[in-house]
Amino acid sequence: MEDINKFVRELRKDFSGEPLDESHINPNPLLQFEHWFKEAVKADVNEPNAMVLSTVAENHKPSARVVLLREFTTNGFAFFTNYQSRKAEDLVKNPNACLTFFWPELERQIRIEGTVTQHNKEASDNYFHSRPRMSRIGAWSSPQSKKIAGRHELENLVTAFDKKYNEEIVPRPDFWGGYLLKPTYYEFWQGRESRLHDRICYQELEKVWQIFRLAP
Predict the structure, then answer these.
(1) Cβ-based neighbours of 210, under 8 Å, separated by 6 or more
(2) CB 105 within 8 A of CB 43
């Protein structure tokens, strides 16, 4: 154990990213996000839409997991999941949440804080029916975040729902759909040399985005 911990302590990677300067960013944080997202796609970042969704439960304990961004507009950042999952239960009690994107290929990170509401039915239907058929079957089959006896239980449920909807369109379950996080705070982080990273933030005050810098 000591050998691996020594290895971990000595891991070093100095960053050498381009400067992130207040005079060269978009005053609209959504457009700044779009610009960086396009650069992540162009750089062939592995799953650039993967983001850590952090929630806080009723007992004040935090929880985090990776989900996929499926849409971002002026209405918010959209993701889809089971409404009976742990994250969904957290959001019922406390709708405040945070999204974190990390793109190591570009030495960049983005944090977005805000409040979460359920997406509208039309958006949930449209996205659900755009998924591959077996992903739709999987949504019906998985009692997400609940204890199961083993892998066989999940596979049996998949078989049962696959048979049930064998000759018809797989409908969206009432317990599955979208969420929207409406941002109130953005932080754009760019890795720089000697750990003197750039951190440029946007915070909404009276419907106006205030821009400021944080020490690394």
Answers:
(1) 202, 203, 204
(2) yes
Residue 164 identity = K
Q: Model pTM greater than 0.90?
A: yes
How far is Cα 75 from Cα 181, in angstroms, rounded to an integer? 8
Q: How many alpha carbons lie under 13 Å from residue 117 in its C-beta half-sphere? A: 7
pLDDT digits (tens, 9 = 90+) for 169-197: 999 999 999 999 999 999 999 999 888 89
- Asked whether the beta carbons of 20 and 198 are under 8 A apart, the reply is yes
Helical spans, DSSP H, in the chain: 2-9, 29-42, 86-93, 121-130, 133-141, 151-164
What whole-number distance in Å separates Cα of residue 141 and Cα of residue 135? 10
CB atoms within 10 A of CB 93: 11
- Is 172 a catalytic site residue? no
Q: Which of 108, 133, 195, 199 is catalytic?
A: 195
Number of CB atoms found within 10 A of residue 175's CB:
15
